[in-house]
Design a protein that fits this description.
It is found in: Cytoplasm. Helices cover 41% and strands 25% of the residues. The termini are far apart. It folds into seven domains: 89 residues, no CATH class; 119 residues, no CATH class; 50 residues; 174 residues, P-loop containing nucleotide triphosphate hydrolases (Rossmann fold, 3-Layer(aba) Sandwich), CATH 3.40.50; 99 residues, Beta Barrel (Elongation Factor Tu (Ef-tu), domain 3), CATH 2.40.30.10; 113 residues, Rossmann fold; 97 residues, Beta Barrel (Elongation Factor Tu (Ef-tu), domain 3), CATH 2.40.30.10. The chain is of the alpha+beta class. The longest helix has 81 residues. α7 packs parallel to α10. The chain contains 25 helices and 35 strands.
């Protein structure tokens, strides 16, 4: 019992106390807290006097002393516990547990506060140390530079002294043999005299090298580890290698010091003000790119302006200007002309032009032998491949003459539907060869070709074909040409003419000579060493090669890999194919080639222009697409009258797919020409290539037929055609197509109903007839009134009702008709709105066969 009496009063151990002691129980509380309580705690509380508790409190303090916190600070902590201890005898176990928990929490908070203070002190001290090290580094760098300069001076001085010593030694060597020994002995001190100068030079950089790593402490070990390694610098010149490394270290030290002083990344970057080019319409994302800002910031700013837009939406120029000014940039407005490519303004200097082959277009009426004449010149049989023996497309070929000259020929269709094709041919050509059949003479498309040629302002050569036929009369052709102001040389004019026969080959050489002569007079030249420009003659969607355009290069040289824009499409030249079907690397002026690599099928007649990069090509193409969309929407009906009139017109919808763009253009124009006030053709979609599933779906939804010109549906589309029951109309010759569509439209309208007025009468009086109906007493003024005919009642020349004559009486007798000058009474069906003075017009309706 004596040992237990001498034990100090049991108090709560500090949280830092480690290990468990005998007679203790470990208590576990919520949130993971624990406490150790002695089992004999009640017995000790009875035996120990309250006055002894303060003396016992230092015992735990001795155990807490090794804690990292300073010793004086924890000392006051037990004192409050000591004051509360006397009241512990009155505590219940629950109160004691609560008190112990509270004291443990206070102790934990105190220790956390002390740890935070220590961390703050360390951070302040580290910052001071870092600043001090930076200053030391700067001073060390300055001292190193000074020391290097002093070392260089000392080395120069030592070398001078060594030279003097060597001179003295050589003078003494001429003395006696003893003097030789003395000279060698004198030589040693000279070496010793030189070596003390050299040694510090080696050691001092080493000291400097050792001082620098001492800044971080960690680099010292690394230098020691690397000291044994042999490097190239060390092998060649150890001192120079060390000096180079020390300069790099100094540079890093300067950068670090600059950062610490706030001259580095801590300094806010200045906002870069940009000159932003803004077109008339631009997307929010593109504007953000040009401004160098985040797209989300622009969208947020627009939301603040009550504009709910996304990054991909287009805004106008005024809104873009507001955004640019809001973000502190400068705006540069550009007009439409700045975005698009203006070909007319770009003129090549005269000294850069070189001769080029002539472009000759063969024009004339259908079946007058244009393609046959070209076949005879080329030695091929193109006509066999054309449906119906007539040309449906513009063909382009190059022919070499006997003299070695090259001539480019364009063959245009002669059918009336291909007017625009002929016009394109006349616009891109240098010389027009007008083919006129000697047996047929001047025909409608011949006149049209003459007009196109005059409009284009190009010279003409008249080729009178089919002179081998018995009924041929070339002089009649020459006389008929006078009616259209075409005076040939034989009639004392300036237009060359030649009589040819495509089948017999007669007059072909003479035709080529006249073409060469005309080309020589024109002095055709173009600049080949520039970016190419070309005109699209034909375009189509090839199944294996994608969009393909047949173009005629007007100037420059088109090379494989060029980036270009053509109409609303852009692309990169993937391949260039000549008229013989061979791939070539480049095509010069006046050369017809097929171009692969387009983004889509362009329209025939579009100009292909090579640009500097893909971004510029996309910009121009996108701008042209927007303008085309605006043009289409501008054609929509804008007034109620227009919409009402269109609502009364019967529509004949259809989907058009053709093999080439020129055919699509010709078919759509021909269909629109068939429209009149009663019925019009509505082309739902017109495109190039095979008939696809989307075409069938569109036709099925609209109940429209699909017109395929030289194309067929793919397998999936065929299945849809069977499933949906879509009507297909296939054609290879355009006038067959127009004839069938005309019949379809006439059938849609039904027979033509024609009104024929039979008689007119005036209402004199109105009587009651039965309970509801009214009878009108009429005076027949003209013609005859018949029972059962259609009638129109007018009042002040305004139609009141359209009805029929239900009953006709003269006096009390029912009659079938009443002639002019007589009076009668009538009852009109479905109307009682009759007044004296009204006019009654009686007419009959006849059905006639309709024509468009």
């Amino acid at each position: 019992m004596s040992d237990s009496d001498n034990k100090p009063t049991r108090t709560r151990k500090p949280l830092s106390l480690k290990g468990s002691q005998p007679g203790e129980v470990k208590q576990t509380f919520s949130h993971g807290r624990t406490n150790k309580v002695a089992v004999e705690v009640k017995r000790r509380r009875k035996l120990v006097k309250p006055g002894e508790e303060p003396a016992a409190t230092p015992a735990p303090e001795a155990e807490v002393a090794p804690a990292p916190a300073p010793a004086p600070e924890p000392a006051p902590t037990p004192a409050p516990a000591a004051k509360k201890k006397p009241a512990a005898s009155d505590e219940t176990p629950q109160e004691r547990v609560a008190r112990l928990q509270r004291e443990a929490e206070e102790e934990r908070l105190r220790l956390a506060e002390e740890a935070r203070k220590r961390d703050d002190q360390k951070a302040v001290k580290a910052a001071k140390d870092e600043k001090q090290r930076a200053e030391d580094n700067k001073k060390a760098a300055e001292e190193a530079e000074k020391q290097a300069a002093e070392d260089a001076k000392k080395q120069a001085k030592a070398e001078t002294q060594a030279q003097d010593a060597a001179a003295d030694a050589s003078a003494d060597a001429s003395a006696a043999g003893e003097a030789d020994g003395d000279a060698s002995a004198a030589g040693r001190p000279a070496a010793r005299k030189f070596s003390p100068v050299a040694r510090p030079e080696i050691k001092r950089p080493a000291k400097k090298k050792e001082e620098k790593p001492a800044r971080g402490g960690a680099t010292t070990g690394a230098d020691k580890r690397r000291s044994g390694k042999l490097t190239v610098n060390k092998a060649l010149n150890e001192d120079e290698g060390r000096r180079a490394r020390s300069l790099a270290a100094l540079k890093r030290a300067r950068e670090k010091e600059r950062r610490l002083q706030g001259g580095g990344s801590n300094k806010p970057r200045e906002k870069q003000v940009r000159d932003v080019v803004v077109p008339e319409a631009i997307t929010v994302g593109e504007l953000a790119k040009r401004m160098g800002e985040k797209g989300a910031d622009l969208v947020k700013e627009l939301f603040n302006l009550d504009m709910m837009v996304t990054v991909n939406q287009t805004i106008d120029q005024d809104t873009a200007e507001l955004l640019v000014e809001q973000f502190g940039h400068n705006i540069t407005r550009v007009s439409e002309a700045d975005v698009d490519i203006a070909v007319e303004e770009d003129v090549d200097p005269a000294e850069t032009l070189k001769p080029r082959p002539p472009v000759v277009t063969i024009m004339g009426h259908v079946d007058h032998g244009k393609t046959s004449l070209l076949d005879a010149l080329r030695g091929t049989k193109v006509t066999k491949g054309e449906a119906g023996g007539i040309t449906q497309h513009i063909g382009s070929y190059q022919v070499k003459t006997k003299g070695g000259d090259t001539v480019t020929f364009l063959d245009t269709p002669g059918h009336a539907a291909f007017t625009e094709m002929r016009q394109r041919g006349a616009n891109v050509t240098d010389i027009v060869v007008l083919v006129v059949a000697a047996d047929d003479g001047i025909m409608p498309q011949t006149i049209e070709a003459i007009n196109h040629t005059k409009a284009a302002g190009v010279p003409m050569i008249v080729a009178i074909n089919k002179i081998d036929k018995p009924e041929a009369n070339p002089d009649n052709v020459r006389n008929r040409l006078l009616e259209h102001e075409v005076i040939v040389e034989k009639m004392s004019g300036d237009v060359q003419d030649v009589e040819v026969s495509a089948t017999e080959g007669t007059g072909l050489d003479e035709l080529l000579e006249k073409i060469a002569l005309q080309a020589e007079l024109l002095e055709l030249k173009a600049r080949p060493d520039r970016d190419a420009e070309a005109t699209v003659i034909e375009a189509q969607l090839d199944k294996g090669r994608g969009p393909v355009a047949t173009v005629l290069v007007t100037r420059g040289t088109l090379k494989r890999g060029d980036t270009f824009v053509v109409g609303t499409e852009s692309g990169r030249v993937r391949a260039v194919v000549n008229d013989a079907g061979k791939q070539i690397k480049e095509a010069g002026p006046s050369m017809p080639v097929e171009v692969l690599g387009l983004g889509g099928v362009p329209s025939a007649g579009d100009v292909l222009t090579v640009v500097e990069n893909e971004a510029r090509a996309r910009e121009v193409a996108q701008y042209r697409q927007e303008k085309a969309t605006e043009k289409r929407t501008a054609l929509a009906p804008t007034s109620f009258d227009t919409m009402f009139n269109q609502a009364n017109v019967i529509e004949w919808p259809c989907v058009v797919k053709a093999d080439v763009q020129g055919s699509v253009e010709a078919i759509v124009n021909a269909l629109h020409n068939l429209s009149n006030d009663d019925i019009k053709v509505r082309v739902l979609h017109a495109g190039v290539g095979a008939i696809t599933e989307s075409d069938v779906t569109l036709a099925a939804a609209s109940g429209a037929p699909i017109i395929g010109f030289g194309v067929r549906p793919n397998p999936k589309a065929r299945d849809l055609v069977k499933r949906d029951g879509v009507r297909m109309m296939y054609y290879d010759v355009i006038y067959h197509l127009t004839d069938d569509v005309t019949k379809e439209m006439i059938g849609e309208l039904g027979p033509l109903k024609v009104e024929n007025v039979v008689g007119r009468a005036q209402v004199k009086e109105v009587f009651k007839s039965g309970k509801k109906d009214k009878a009108a007493g009429l005076l027949v003024e003209e013609g005859v009134i018949r029972k059962g005919l259609h009638a129109r009642l007018t009042r002040d020349d305004v139609i009141v009702s359209a009805t029929t004559i239900a009953s006709l009486r003269r006096f009390k007798d029912d009659v079938d008709e009443v002639r002019a000058g007589l009076e009668c009474g009538v009852v009109l069906a479905d109307t009682n709105d009759i007044k004296a003075g009204d006019q009654l017009e009686v007419f009959e309706v006849n059905e006639e066969e309709r024509t468009l």
